[in-house]
Design goal:
six-stranded parallel beta sheet
């Protein structure tokens, strides 16, 4: 594999995990950017990165940086991504793609101008083996025609002890943006279908903590419940229901159950295992039998106090970076990377779709009504 140099934008716990995984796959992390030079230096020292700065261009203009990993706050994504693509750098962007649909559209348009460059969104659940096997079972019609996808996620609080962007809904935080975005993308990945209409309720139940008092209040939602009607005829339409909660009651914990209901039975991903409960096709009187289609050998529970990133996401990222490594190890005849190796990953168009659904859910919560998802893009 050609020595692919990585430039990191953003200093967070995700940054530490990403740098570790990239090095395991043989990538070279050459530079890191932080909002302040002190922050960048702190992370550079801890992660043993030789170059650090608080100036975006100083990372992008380095000849040893081939790939931008944009892991900072969502309101900075569009500026860094468009600039990266413009000077010929591959890009992986943390979800969500931007603050709003307009941000996401700018990034999609930039990627269309430079089709020879990689553009990926960090929706790592696509690479978790249980969901890879679930998608395969759906494609093989293992449980027949699907009618319902039910998702429940419970996670510890997303808020830090000090007031920062994670407290602010307008800066891209909250359980809908940070967790719901994965759910929306996962449903699209599993079925290949997009949402036509949505209905949602978004709430912020906790506005302060013992460490966050005074005039500043938390506006990032810690609860959301939404339904998606996926595209298809009325007789074959799939309904998605999702319930996401984030609060102190799940401190250092993460629970995620994904269940798909078909005419012959159910597929369920619990933790990292894929379980199927179904009856024999053509026999309505047959007993339902349980079988495990995939068993995860690693413990998927997140119990370490030092990590708030669920293990499912970490393992998915590891698998995604393996695919990225393969893309550069086996280049195609007309490019220095192989598109097929990362075909399963979410690209900027997928990220734009997720942003459109999120905005429709927010509008639905405000109006208390079903909202049509606007999927039209801006014209050049």
């Amino acid at each position: 594999m050609h020595n692919i140099g990585i430039g990191i934008f953003g200093c967070s716990e995700v940054t530490k995990i990403v740098v570790t995984l990239l090095r395991e796959k043989g990538f070279n992390v050459q530079a890191i950017w932080g909002k302040t030079k002190e922050e960048a230096q702190e992370y550079a020292n801890e992660l043993k990165i030789s170059f650090y700065t608080n100036k975006i261009d100083e990372v992008l203009l380095r000849k040893d940086v081939d790939f931008s990993f944009v892991l900072c706050q969502p309101y900075l994504h569009s500026h860094i991504v468009v600039k990266s693509l413009g000077i010929g750098k591959h890009v992986l962007c943390e979800k969500t793609l931007g603050i709003n649909v307009l941000d996401a559209q700018k990034m999609v348009h930039a990627s269309e101008y430079y089709p020879s460059l990689i553009n990926l969104v960090n929706h790592s659940l696509r690479f978790l083996p249980a969901f890879v096997h679930m998608k395969k079972a759906i494609a093989e019609n293992y449980i027949g025609e699907i009618s319902l996808i039910d998702v429940t996620v419970k996670i510890s609080t997303l808020i830090h002890d000090k007031f920062d962007w994670l407290c602010d809904d307008h800066q891209g935080s909250g359980c809908l943006n940070l967790i719901g975005s994965h759910v929306i993308d996962l449903c699209h990945f599993l079925t290949g279908k997009k949402a036509k209409r949505v209905h949602g309720i978004i709430k912020t139940f906790r506005h302060t903590t013992h460490a966050i008092q005074g005039i500043r209040q938390i506006t990032a939602p810690d609860f959301c419940n939404f339904q998606l009607e996926l595209e298809g005829s009325p007789n074959s339409q799939i309904l998605v229901t999702a319930n996401i909660q984030s609060n102190d009651g799940y401190r250092n914990g993460f629970e995620q159950d994904v269940s798909i209901v078909g005419e012959l039975g159910n597929l369920k991903v619990i933790g990292g295992d894929l379980i199927c409960i179904r009856r024999k096709a053509g026999d309505d009187n047959a007993e339902y039998k349980e079988e495990k289609l995939y068993v995860e050998i690693q413990d998927m529970r997140t119990s370490e106090a030092s990590s708030s990133i669920p293990r499912q996401y970490v393992k998915g990222m590891s698998k995604m970076f393996s695919a990225l490594k393969e893309a550069f190890t086996t280049p195609s005849s007309n490019s220095n990377w192989n598109k097929e190796s990362v075909a399963a990953a979410a690209n900027f168009n997928d990220g734009l779709y997720v942003q459109q659904v999120i905005e429709a859910i927010k509008k639905s919560s405000d109006t208390r009504s079903w909202i049509k998802v606007e999927t039209a893009t801006l014209k050049d």
